[in-house]
Amino acid sequence: MNRTTLSLIAAAAALAAVTGFAAATAPGGDGDSAKAAARLPVERSSLLCPAPSTSDLAETAYTSYTPASKGSGSSGKAALSQATRELTDGTGSGKGKADKPVLSPLKPGKPVAGESSGAESPALVGSADGNLAPGWTVQQTTEVAAGTGRGLLGVNCSAPDTDFWFPGASTAKERSDYIHLTNPDDSAAVVDVQLYGANGAIKSDVGEGIQVQPHSSVPVLLSTLTDKPQTNVTLHVTARSGRVAAAVLAADDKLGGDWLPASADPAGTVVLPGIPKDATSVRLVAFTPGDNDADLKIQLASPTGRITPAGHESLHVKSGMTAAVDLGDVTRGEAGSLVLTPTGDSAPVVATLRVVRGKGADQESAFIPATRPVGARVTVADNRAKGSTLSLTAPGAAGTVKVTASAGTEGGTPVTKTYTVKGGTTMSVRPPVPAGLKGSYALTVEQVSGGEVYGSRMLDVSDADVPGVPMFTVQTLPDDRGTVSVPHADQDLSVLQK
């Protein structure tokens, strides 16, 4: 069997896996196949949640939600179960699949919540089929009342992949950053972890060939990869074999802690949405993985339009080197979003913002990575009656989105509202709340018309548990990719197997 035939069979198998179809269209010269292509809901999704905390004081909430999708069928199943806990060096039992599910969603349109406590809560491995797969979202939210990394730690559980960029990580003495690697599959994954500082790649043999056993998770302390601490580094995670989910748990002695998600893929124009209006400190960290340097124009999309921060008009990012700039209280009391655009022949970049709220001993931090547009649809779970803020940014032309608040985990009626974001601005709003809400709820955002809209959700749970500390976390809202483009089936590729 030649390579072309193998490739076609592999393509057909992949298509069948995500759509349930066993045939695909062969390339044609008349373009009819392209015209017949349709977008259909995916039929299987995988999500992985990292181990939430090493603190005995940690209290973690899990919230699962799947929005209803046309054409996704009338049945499905989903479950999140415990992964095997491994040591930092990749050793551990590595045995078997997970135990009894921690969460078992039942139907689209109804969020389901669960919880765990203490430092022994493991990573979770989950999958969803049928009508529970398209747009399946799980939010992991952890409150830590004291100690290093004190604060609100939030992360959207993510799909497995093979390549991740994390600008904004650190190996400084005041930070304890762990990269959590979780393997959902039946065979081991082999992963390389590489750090890049202000002067380029940081040499280390420790980060090469990390084995992640089936259905298990490995945490790696970044400071063990180098003997020279650096405040701002970019972390690159690549899977040599298999696939993993990856997220960085960043804990600071003074600034609290939160999850640092991966940046969107390298791009020329980068949008980082949802800087809180009361941010007291904002740091931009950027990296270009290509062979050429990047020259970026820095602008803030404010409620009234784009402005250039005084003294921070541009940023030069050298190839293979991490660049960082402190923007201070760049929002000046108004919520905004950072937009980076190339000047001249500039290389693509990845980027992240570290955002700090509060002052003195009462500071808390969160991260906003570069993200994709809202696109067709995106969902964020675990919203509360009070404390949720939705930020929407239209960096180009004005755009309109529809926002739907789901029913609550314990009751409530869905509510929908439409927002139009003026071009070049950021709109910060309290999102709609379900009528008669009991428990937490999900927000689904859909692009209706106009230019691209980017978004994020801030969750604030400041209360008497940690007096004076603004406990918050920010999650960006990239398109959920809950549908796949399927061409018209006029050739059965199964004949190629004969």
Strand order of the largest sheet: 5-15-11-17-18
The share of residues in extended strands comes to over 45%
How many individual helices? 2
End-to-end Cα distance? 10 Å
The unreliable regions are 1-34, 87-98
Give the tally of β-strands.
38
Overall helicity: under 10%
Main beta sheet: 5 strands, mixed
Principal-axis shape: globular
> What is the rounded Rg?
22 Å
Q: Please, what is the average pLDDT?
A: 88
Which structural class is indicated by helix and strand composition?
mainly beta
Describe this structure in words.
The protein has helices at residues 3-19, 32-36, and strands spanning 38-41, 44-49, 59-65, 76-82, 84-85, 112-117, 124-130, 137-144, 151-156, 163-169, 175-183, 189-197, 200-202, 210-212, 216-221, 233-241, 245-252, 256-260, 270-275, 279-287, 294-301, 306-307, 314-317, 323-328, 336-342, 350-357, 364-369, 378-383, 388-394, 399-408, 411-413, 415-421, 425-429, 435-438, 441-450, 454-460, 472-476, 483-486. Helices cover 4% and strands 47% of the residues. It is mainly beta and 498 residues long. It has a five-stranded mixed sheet, with no helix packed on it. Strands 10, 12, 13, 14 and 16 form a five-stranded antiparallel sheet that branches. Strand 8 (137-144) and strand 9 (151-156) form a beta hairpin.
What's the arrangement of secondary structure elements?
Elements: H1 3-19, H2 32-36, E1 38-41, E2 44-49, E3 59-65, E4 76-82, E5 84-85, E6 112-117, E7 124-130, E8 137-144, E9 151-156, E10 163-169, E11 175-183, E12 189-197, E13 200-202, E14 210-212, E15 216-221, E16 233-241, E17 245-252, E18 256-260, E19 270-275, E20 279-287, E21 294-301, E22 306-307, E23 314-317, E24 323-328, E25 336-342, E26 350-357, E27 364-369, E28 378-383, E29 388-394, E30 399-408, E31 411-413, E32 415-421, E33 425-429, E34 435-438, E35 441-450, E36 454-460, E37 472-476, E38 483-486
Parallel strand pairs: 5-15
Antiparallel strand pairs: 1-38, 2-7, 3-6, 3-8, 4-7, 8-9, 10-16, 11-15, 11-17, 12-13, 12-14, 12-16, 17-18, 19-25, 20-24, 20-26, 21-22, 21-23, 21-25, 26-27, 28-35, 29-33, 29-36, 30-32, 30-35, 31-34, 36-37
